[in-house]
Amino acid sequence: MPTPAPNLTRITVDGSTKVDNYLRVTINPSGPRVLTWVKVPFTTP
Q1: Could you give the count of Cα atoms lying within 13 Å of 39 in the half-sphere of its Cβ?
Q2: N or C: more exposed end of the chain, with fewer CB within 10 A?
């Protein structure tokens, strides 16, 4: 891209080794922040 995008956010996630969490993404088109995310640890039953 020749010019930076002001509303672009980069999210990196873990690779395929030592996977112990996942990324939960919430989309709220009418909110002040369209995208929110949180890393959630896996739980064992």
Answers
A1: 8
A2: C
pTM: 0.60
N residues, the chain? 45
Q: Give the tokens for residue 27.
A: 């989309």
In the structure encoding, which two tokens stand for residue 32, read together? 């002040």
Q: Where are the beta strands (DSSP E) in 1-45?
A: 21-27, 35-41
Radius of gyration for the alpha carbons in the chain, expressed in angstroms and rounded: 15
Q: What are the pLDDT tens digits along the chain (45 aa)?
A: 588 777 777 888 777 777 788 889 999 999 888 889 998 888 876
